[in-house]
C-alpha cells in the first residue's frame, strides 16, 4: 500500500509545476503577515465578544504567561511531529525536522509523495490541534477565563501557524487536482510535479 503513496524517483515525463520556499525572504514575509491576520481573526472575536473575559484575562498573571509560552513551544514541536507521524505512517521513510526564525518544518526529502499523501500530512496537524484547542477552550470558558484566554491565544497562533499548510492544501484541492501529481517536501520547500502532457 505504501508504494502507491510515493515514488522513489521522479517518473520520466514529469515537470515542475510549482515551488514554494518558506525560508525565502519574500515568502517568509507573506506567510508571516498572513499568519498574523489569521491569528487575529481567531483571537479578537473570541476575546472581544465577552466583557468579563476581557476584564479578567487581558492582563495575564506571570503563571498564565509562563503556561502560555510553554504550551506554544510544546505545540510547535507537536505540530511538526504530527506531520511526521502522517508521513511515517504513509511512507515509512526517513523524516527531516528543523526550525529557523520564520519556520518550523518536517519533510520527507528523498521521495515524491502522492497528492493524497501530501493532503493527509498537510491537514493532520490542522485537524488534530483545531479539535484539541477548541475543546479545551470550550471547557475552560466555563471554568477559568484566564486560561480560556490562554487557549484562545494558542488556538489563534495554531491557525496562524498553519497558513503554509492551508495554502498548499488549497493549491492541491483547487489548482493542482491531478491524481498523478507528485510532491517533494524537503521541509521548508515543496515542489509540485505534473506529467508533461497535463497542464
UniProtKB/TrEMBL annotation:
Cite a single Pfam family from the UniProt record.
Answer: DUF3267
Question: Which keywords has UniProt assigned to this entry?
Answer: Membrane, Transmembrane, Transmembrane helix
Transmembrane regions listed in the UniProt entry: 28-47, 59-77, 97-113, 120-142, 148-174
The question of whether Transport is a record keyword is answered with no
The name this protein carries in UniProt is: DUF3267 domain-containing protein
Amino acid at each position: 500500500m505504501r508504494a502507491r503513496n510515493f515514488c522513489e524517483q521522479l517518473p520520466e515525463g514529469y515537470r515542475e509545476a510549482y515551488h514554494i520556499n518558506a525560508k525565502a525572504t519574500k515568502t517568509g514575509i507573506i506567510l508571516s503577515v498572513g499568519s498574523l491576520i489569521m491569528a487575529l481573526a481567531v483571537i479578537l472575536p473570541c476575546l472581544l465578544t465577552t466583557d468579563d473575559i476581557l476584564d479578567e484575562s487581558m492582563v495575564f498573571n506571570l503563571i498564565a504567561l509562563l503556561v502560555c509560552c510553554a504550551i506554544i513551544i510544546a505545540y510547535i514541536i507537536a505540530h511538526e511531529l504530527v506531520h511526521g507521524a502522517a508521513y511515517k505512517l504513509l511512507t515509512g521513510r526517513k523524516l527531516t525536522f528543523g526550525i529557523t526564525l520564520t519556520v518550523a518544518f518536517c519533510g520527507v526529502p528523498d521521495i515524491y509523495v502522492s497528492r493524497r499523501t501530501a493532503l493527509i500530512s498537510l491537514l493532520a496537524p490542522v485537524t488534530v490541534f483545531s479539535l484539541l484547542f477548541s475543546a479545551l477552550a470550550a471547557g475552560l470558558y466555563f471554568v477559568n477565563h484566564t486560561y480560556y484566554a490562554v487557549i484562545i491565544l494558542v488556538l489563534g497562533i495554531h491557525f496562524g501557524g498553519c497558513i503554509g499548510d492551508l495554502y498548499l492544501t488549497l493549491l492541491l484541492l483547487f489548482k493542482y487536482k491531478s491524481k498523478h501529481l507528485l510532491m517533494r517536501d524537503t521541509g521548508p520547500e515543496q515542489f509540485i510535479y505534473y506529467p508533461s502532457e497535463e497542464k
